Amino acid sequence: MVHIGFIKSPFKKLENMPIQSVGAQSTEGSVHIYPDFVQGLKDLDGFSHIYAIYEFHKSNNYNLIVKPFLDDTKRGLFSTRAPKRPNPIGLSIFNIVKVINETILVKGVDVLDGTPLLDIKPYVSKFDIIHNSKNGWLEKTMNKSDTIVSDKRFK
Description:
single chain, mainly beta, six-stranded antiparallel beta barrel, two-stranded antiparallel sheet, 30% strand
């Protein structure tokens, strides 16, 4: 896979970070695009949000059964958003503040400083909202995602 850039954030350690971008709505950061990919930013400033697809570069192994941040019950890895995965790929939604040359100033940053960026896709409400969706075991605890921070369980 090719890294197209990297993400700057105030988070220097894996512990005490927001576990989802909803818990980091006011956290500012920036997405930096490498020169070979800057042309791809054309017209992005017309969108309010982006999906940032990135590599969990500090993740070095995984378990198929995990105890997620939002539950005390062990769950199947693929029913969680745990960062240690067979293919360590993360996904966050960032609010675009401004696009300046090769940099996208954003809010809602919930990733480690220096995280390698794999791709960007615009958030489109008509495409990306699924009404009446089911949230599985997270239905009972997902409202805590804006206050719970990471700990050492996936270090």
